[in-house]
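Lecture 7, part B: from sequences to assemblies.

Below are the input chains for today's worked example.
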Amino acid sequence: MKSIADPKQAEVRLNTPGTWLLVALVVVGVSVAALRLATGLGATTNLSDGVPWGLWIGFDVVAGVALAAGGFTLAAIVYIFGLEKYRPVVRPAILTAFLGYILVAVGIVLDIGRPYRIWHPIVFWQEHSVMFEVAWCVMLYLSVLALEFSSSIWEKLRLARLVNFMRMIIIPLVILGITLSTLHQSSLGSLFLITPELSPLWYTSLLPYLFFISAVGIGLAMVIFESFISAKVFKQGLEMKVLTGLARAAVFVWVGYLAIRFWNLIATGRLWDFTWNAQGALFLVETGVGMVLPVLILSIARLRNSPGWLFGAASLLIGGAVLNRLNTSLLGFPNTWQVGYFPSWMEFAVTIGLVSAALLAFKLAVKYTAVFAAYAHKPSTPGLKSAGAVVEAE
Amino acid sequence: MAKALLIDVTRCTGCRGCQVACKQWNELPGEKTSVSTSWTNPKELSAYTWTHVDFREVPNRAGHPTWNFVHKRCFHCLEPACVSACPVGALQKTEEGPVTYDAARCMGCRYCMVACPFSIPKFTWDSAQPVIAKCTFCADRLADGQEPACAKTCLTNAIQFGERDELIAEAQGRIQATPGRYVNYIYGKDEAGGTSVMYLAGVPFDRLGFKTDISLEPYPERTWEALSKIPWEVLGVAAVMSGTWWIIQRREKNGANSISKKAKR
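Predicted structure of the full complex, as structure tokens:
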């Protein structure tokens, strides 16, 4: 009975060099974070009055939120559009989103001048501020993700009532999550509507829409990317049919994104502001190598069906998307170059520590909860229902 | 009602009494300075120097180099980008004119610094409990019926305190009364939707380090245009998602029913 009762658990070995490397990086990151809390931003970062937002906002927060977009994208595909074929990847996607948002939240806490006042937006309302809206959405969506992810824990603990309760509220919860994600994926773009000194290659009144569409595109690419990694690390089965389906959707999303973005650049005449400087090069790498090239690869069926090309294209899309967020929030500003901002080693240490902590937490979650349970049960008996039934039978 | 300052660059002698008066009134510490390419010291505005006189050598119309002493500080916009950016309402535009700052509310997110079109708000980076710092328009002195410390101390009346409307009329009067002394422009009358600190100058403003690409529309409109749509976006997304779920779920149920019916037959 045991093999049926236990949702099939991925076999994860914790005592590996990789794990210990991650632990070491987390320890370094936590130490530097403690130093930052004790001594302040000026002592630990290369931020200044000229460049008040740096690596932590650019990567940990703005890019981090985008990389966590797989959660709401896959939740919509499976729970709302009813495409059962994709159910096996919905849990890892939600777990990635959950960990991603924890990373974002910790990143924000460390970046603000007075971390112990992080709760202020709950009490002091200022609805004309994009930052106010971002703060609320991150708080609420983090709660939604925690609830969504909790299913895996209740199943593991065989708490039938909670599993059934989650099954009851999952649809409203998913709809709430999609709404919150739509709002603040786009409002991270809105943040920069008020900073027109941003290079015309990135500044446009369409920023909120572009941020939202690309978030969906990044979400799809992230799920493909992490499925390959999980397959390798956790010896999980890799269903190419699922991944090529996501890749086809990604092609549509990214073609739409590129069409709107370039049409807007041409219609407003901003494309002619292109010059051969560092920002011009960043723009070419971002859109050419990070978006157009992978979209071309994925639109050719033969390449899309080849694991190597599919993984490569998804990786390029993620790189392009991260670069887009860094460009919009940091590198596209003339001041960054005039001041000559480059992150301090301590800024890098914290960022690397945060990412390592997320990877480590993912590994632990796979080992101790039913993240990949759906693989064991196959789409005909979706993870939640069968696990609930099993518990009831006992 | 709405107070403002008119700064006449052609009247300034560069004595920097305003700089000292500002430091004294606001109890700001001196800064360690060093020799630089600038004629002034400290070189620019900082968290501890809220007003600063910039020295600019610019040729006049006859081609002769002339000194221009430019008093710089927060513009106290009529519709400030920083106030709209602040997530916790730590920055406020008061009716009398000053844009004030409440350190007790501030989290230190620094969005105001990113949003300000004039790059005015600074941060006390060296502190573990940092605050945003900028000119307060001496809001405390105004509340007491006094004029700002810089205007009070100015020997040549290059910094004039008064009603905004009256100061604009005064500035226009000076331009008309002494043609040739001024460029025909009041900087701050329309910039960023209008500011409470306005300037007259004898040479074009871009030569004096003023930003000339400032939008004449208020900056908060740009983000409010996106933010004001949010209630509709919430309703729209939630409705479309709920509707889609309902339709697809019903279709699947019907589909399953028809299959089982077929099986029965």
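Note for the exam: The mean pLDDT of chain B is 93. Keep this in mind when comparing with the next example.
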